[in-house]
């Protein structure tokens, strides 16, 4: 079972860069998209509803902002938009496809890099979302939470870690939040199960030559419940073509359809 997560930084911009021509060749079961930056009525062209996929979009109320989507080869039993916090549900940040024994979630966590007011919103998100994640762990099902979490966890997860310790995305409190998610709540950083290497990044600033020099951050994750840890077969960050300032995170799981 192949799962792709990508922040497109505008689904229409990614389309112009060839994203939807690339997608069918990946033979993915699920594609989780973040930062669609479009209302669903702006996505009436067939490419935005790929053939043989069940497609759902969750738009922000504010036009041209945030938003998530999921494309799935498997018909969900339930589509859940939002996790119950209006501040973030109004920004289209959480979309869940629920199956019999599995949920696949597309998540776009807030960034705090554009000012103190956005960092305060990010703190509110983290405070409320950890409670939701704790509730998910009590359910008798497995979860794959794909998305842009906007936090690099360890020094290995960004190039210039020394100079970013006071910057949003690598603040000690944000990193401790992820540690708590893994160590206490019990979720698993799926990528690191199979790839412990350095310099594995998913986002690069558009300033300077960050992409060319691989001066990046790993802020896009597939975070899973412990029951899926041993089901992870491989993971890779796709860099052959560039559709966004983020790269697609592609992961394969040893899961049969009957297990879903």
Structure, briefly:
With 260 residues, this protein is α+β, with helices and mostly antiparallel strands. Helix content is 23%, strand content 25%. The chain has a single domain, classed as Endonuclease/exonuclease/phosphatase (Deoxyribonuclease I, Chain A, 4-Layer Sandwich), CATH 3.60.10.
Description:
The chain is of the alpha+beta class. It has one domain (2-259): Endonuclease/exonuclease/phosphatase (Deoxyribonuclease I, Chain A, 4-Layer Sandwich). Helix content is 23%, strand content 25%. It is built from 7 helices and 14 strands. A 6-stranded mixed sheet has the order 3-4-2-1-14-13. Strand 7, helix 4 (116-137) and strand 8 form a beta-alpha-beta unit. It is globular. The N and C termini lie close together (10 Å). The mean pLDDT is 96.
């Amino acid at each position: 079972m192949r799962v792709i997560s990508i922040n497109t930084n505008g689904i229409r911009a990614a389309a112009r860069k060839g994203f939807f021509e690339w997608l069918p060749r990946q033979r993915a079961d699920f594609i989780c998209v973040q930062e669609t930056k479009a209302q669903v009525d702006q996505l009436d062209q067939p490419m935005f509803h790929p053939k043989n996929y069940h497609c759902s979009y969750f738009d922000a109320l504010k036009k041209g902002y945030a938003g998530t989507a999921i494309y799935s080869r498997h018909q969900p039993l339930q589509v859940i938009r939002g996790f119950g916090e209006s501040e973030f549900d109004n920004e289209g940040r959480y979309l869940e496809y629920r199956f019999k024994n599995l949920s696949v979630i597309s998540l776009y966590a807030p960034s705090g890099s554009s000012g103190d007011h956005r960092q305060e919103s990010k703190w509110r998100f983290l405070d409320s979302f950890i409670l939701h994640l704790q509730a998910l762990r009590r359910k008798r099902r497995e979860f794959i939470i794909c998305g842009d979490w906007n936090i690099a966890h360890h020094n290995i997860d960004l190039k210039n870690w020394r100079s970013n310790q006071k910057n949003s995305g690598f603040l000690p409190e944000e990193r401790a939040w992820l540690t708590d998610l893994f160590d206490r709540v019990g979720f698993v950083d799926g990528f690191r199960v199979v790839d412990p290497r350095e310099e594995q990044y998913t986002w690069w600033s558009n300033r300077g030559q960050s992409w060319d020099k691989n001066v990046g951050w790993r802020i896009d994750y597939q975070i899973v419940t412990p029951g899926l840890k041993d089901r992870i077969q491989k993971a890779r960050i796709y860099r052959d073509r560039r559709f966004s300032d983020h790269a697609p995170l592609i992961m394969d799981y040893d899961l049969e359809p009957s297990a879903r």
